[in-house]
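Consider the tokenized backbone below.
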């Protein structure tokens, strides 16, 4: 809705939209049978060991915490048990077990989500020459980050909702000083706020199940503990409180039960002065941006991770019932607040040389600081800092320097994770020439500097060493009990809460460390565009362009502690590393590059006779030293950590041919259209519209790699990076199918102590196509009011797009039978959506 508030003075516009949705979710789980919960393991493998009597009953007393925890498993009357479950409480030869001990519970549920949009704008005319404008967009969402599971809504569930609030606002003042001078001042802010809260938070669970007060600071958070019961002895893996990643757990697989907050955004102030002087239109301006990220890390509170592997009794669930903890740890994270600023001044001149020729010249000088952290809660790896550790009778440089400490490499005190860059100069030039009516030729070149995003430039430095964690023996020795669940960790094993004063520069010794070079360069892009446009009759435009984009100083994130080829054959802890004090040194080096070349054609028809369309085609090639994607993006795959050029190849997203387009056609029947209709005829046959969005592109590339199990036998010392195979034949097949997309026999294991000769992304996967169709009907109520009913079909023809095939090759005596086969699809099946839009 919108309209005037004060005539000729104040105007407003407001839009509200809410889209609730629900997606089905299902999974098969393993839960303890009634007999197992009672300590009866009759008939199970391992139930004949010394921990059990002759009838398979677990001997000794049962742990009181475990007994309380197992009450959170589905009750006997829960709807998901398979037939015969949970079975008899006391199984025996005379009372047979009717419930399998694995995959015995089927869950079907739903995952709700809601997207809401609030959009508004207000304009106020201060005078005939000054206008004040304010606009905002508020986009809150609620999603089922982890789908519901059989334990929902109890405190033991892994189910978790994520709430995201996106807010953008801008205030601008436009002042027409004279007919040749205009000034625009604006301030804006944008914010993303993500919140994840576990359902059990604040419910006093550690006390109610018996961890507290025994554990004290060893169960620091009021949240459900994460319990992982391994698969074994014919019993499936189980979890309470989501469990842990990598334990073979069903459903979310260890995800969920997370507390996390991420608030990030930017404040901007800028001013642009426009001057018109004869044939010149000159713009002079400046901008200041303040970026921030308030972060708690992914999962910042914990009451303990407890794991049970069956190493004591022979059955993991029996270990759990007896309280025999195999391993335990606590992970917490302190919140941090990171900040950075950028500023720029710029000038440009549009020079109209002739009525048919315009030249644009511009220059932008940009500066940006390094990322700092409030209260200096960060640490960085300094390769020049002395380290007292001795390995093989030798010391090596490299240790942790914490925020606020004296900086021996650059002087002063360490105040930012990386140094600022104050010499970013970005020229731009453009030419537009129209030699005759309906023809135009354009050419442009520019350099564009990229801001330093928080994720790639700060993540592994934030609160380094400051997060609460356990010290002392915490188990993970098979066949030994770390401690009894109800008793808690033994003396000498406890959770500590470090401070900057208690930290040592050797805190990461003999573990992994992240490296952010202090003088890392700024990412920039050079772009060149040459285009020809021609307007044909009936509003049809054809635009043909050549586009070249060159990326420089791109992230080539690799482990620079990778063994040289001469040390590929060694084995043992940190064997062959250039710096054996560290297991890995994951460096953000920013020494990569990319090149993109494309011929692009755009065919566009402006709306006339009820029809408009736009079709874009690109014949392109994108090459890079590694394609980043998502959170903390580095590179997709690499073999040699020290040679970006050896990794140079087609980008992951490279598609040689791409065709995308849209078309809208309003049928010519109905009120206000070419064939006017009235009354019932208009209500039935008038106001129809058909539209479509479509996309097609050739396949994207992938890299054949030596499967990890084979790599370890060829080069046990190559623990960082990926080993590529040697090409010994033709990998192409004449008739590609999902069971034989390429020829795995064309690849062989490289000789020990050498890298493979295959190039990255040397094969291409299946093509992709998708068509969305929409049909809409407008019912005109009267001139100022109408109702539109719309049916949308996504992937209207239910076309299956296949993902790239399994690319694991190599031979350890028997080739990987899955190599070259496709087992997953790209995208979803057909979705039909109905909607309505009321206009007034």
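A designed sequence for it:
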């Amino acid at each position: 809705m919108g309209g005037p508030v004060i005539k000729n003075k104040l105007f407003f516009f407001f839009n509200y939209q809410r889209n609730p949705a629900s997606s089905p979710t299902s999974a098969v789980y393993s839960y303890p049978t009634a007999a197992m919960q009672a300590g009866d393991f009759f008939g199970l493998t391992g139930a004949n060991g010394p921990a059990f009597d002759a009838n398979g009953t677990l001997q000794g007393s049962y742990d009181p915490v475990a007994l309380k925890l197992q009450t959170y498993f589905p009750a006997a009357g829960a709807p998901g048990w398979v037939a015969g479950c949970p079975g008899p409480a006391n199984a025996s030869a005379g009372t047979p077990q009717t419930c399998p001990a694995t995959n015995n519970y089927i869950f079907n549920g739903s995952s709700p989500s809601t997207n809401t949009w609030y959009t508004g704008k207000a304009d106020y005319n201060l005078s005939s020459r000054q206008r004040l404008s304010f606009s905002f967009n508020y986009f809150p969402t609620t999603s089922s980050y982890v789908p519901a599971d059989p334990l929902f809504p109890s405190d033991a569930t892994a189910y978790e909702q994520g709430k995201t609030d996106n807010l953008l606002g801008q205030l601008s003042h436009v002042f027409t000083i004279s007919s040749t001078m205009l000034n625009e001042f604006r301030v804006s802010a944008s914010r993303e706020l993500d919140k994840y809260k576990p359902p059990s938070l604040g419910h006093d669970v550690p006390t109610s199940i018996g961890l507290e007060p025994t554990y004290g600071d060893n169960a620091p958070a009021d949240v459900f503990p994460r319990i992982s019961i391994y698969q074994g002895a014919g019993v499936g893996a189980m979890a309470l409180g989501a469990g842990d990643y990598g334990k073979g757990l069903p459903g979310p697989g260890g995800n969920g039960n997370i507390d996390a907050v991420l608030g990030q955004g930017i404040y901007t102030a800028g001013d642009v002065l426009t001057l018109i002087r004869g044939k010149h239109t000159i713009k002079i301006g400046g901008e200041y941006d303040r970026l921030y990220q308030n972060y708690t890390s992914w999962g910042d509170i914990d009451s303990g991770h407890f794991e049970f592997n069956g190493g004591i009794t022979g059955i993991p669930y029996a270990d759990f019932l007896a309280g025999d903890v195999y391993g335990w740890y606590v992970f917490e994270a302190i919140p941090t607040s990171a900040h950075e600023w950028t500023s720029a001044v710029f000038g440009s001149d549009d020079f109209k040389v002739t009525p048919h020729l315009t030249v644009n010249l511009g220059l932008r000088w940009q500066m940006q600081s390094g990322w700092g952290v409030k209260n200096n809660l960060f640490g960085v790896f300094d390769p020049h800092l002395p380290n007292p550790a001795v390995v093989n009778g030798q010391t090596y440089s490299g240790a942790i320097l914490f925020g606020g400490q004296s900086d021996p490499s650059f002087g002063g005190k360490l105040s930012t994770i990386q140094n600022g860059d104050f010499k970013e100069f970005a020229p731009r030039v453009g030419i537009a020439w129209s030699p005759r009516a309906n023809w135009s030729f354009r050419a442009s070149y520019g350099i564009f500097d990229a801001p330093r995003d928080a994720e790639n430039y700060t993540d592994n430095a934030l609160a380094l060493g400051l997060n609460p964690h356990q010290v002392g023996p915490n188990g993970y020795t098979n066949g030994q009990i770390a401690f009894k669940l109800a008793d808690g960790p033994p003396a000498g094993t406890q959770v500590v809460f470090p401070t900057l004063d208690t930290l040592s520069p050797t805190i990461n010794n003999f573990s992994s460390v992240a490296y952010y070079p202090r003088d890392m360069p700024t990412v920039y892009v050079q772009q060149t565009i040459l285009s020809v446009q021609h307007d044909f009759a009936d509003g049809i435009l054809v635009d043909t362009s050549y586009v070249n984009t060159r990326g420089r100083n791109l992230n080539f994130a690799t482990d620079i502690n990778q063994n040289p080829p001469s040390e590929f054959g060694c084995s043992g802890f940190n064997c062959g590393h250039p710096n054996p004090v560290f297991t890995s040194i994951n460096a953000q080096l920013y020494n990569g590059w990319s090149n993109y070349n494309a011929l692009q054609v755009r065919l566009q028809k402006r709306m006339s006779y009820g029809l408009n369309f736009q079709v874009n085609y690109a014949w392109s090639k994108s090459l890079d030293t590694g394609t980043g994607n998502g959170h903390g993006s580095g590179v997709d795959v690499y073999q040699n950590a020290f040679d970006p050029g050896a990794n140079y190849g087609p980008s992951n997203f490279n598609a040689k041919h791409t065709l995308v387009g849209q078309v809208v056609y309003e049928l010519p029947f109905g009120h206000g259209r070419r064939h006017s209709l009235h009354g019932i005829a208009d209500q039935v046959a008038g106001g129809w519209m058909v539209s479509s969005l479509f996309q097609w592109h050739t396949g994207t590339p992938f890299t054949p790699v030596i499967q990890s199990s084979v790599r370890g036998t060829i080069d046990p010392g190559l623990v960082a990076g990926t080993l590529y195979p040697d090409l010994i034949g033709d990998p192409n097949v004449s008739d590609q199918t999902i069971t034989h997309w390429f020829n795995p026999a064309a690849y062989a294991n490289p000789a020990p102590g050498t890298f493979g000769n295959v190039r990255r992304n040397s094969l291409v996967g299946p093509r992709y196509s998708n068509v969305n169709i929409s049909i809409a009907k407008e019912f005109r109520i009267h001139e100022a009011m109408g109702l539109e009913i719309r049916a949308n079909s996504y992937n209207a023809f239910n076309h299956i797009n296949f993902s790239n095939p399994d690319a694991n090759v190599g031979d350890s005596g028997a080739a990987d039978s899955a190599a070259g086969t496709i087992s997953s699809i790209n995208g979803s099946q057909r979705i039909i959506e109905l909607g309505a839009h009321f206009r007034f």
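DSSP finds seven helices and 44 strands in the chain.
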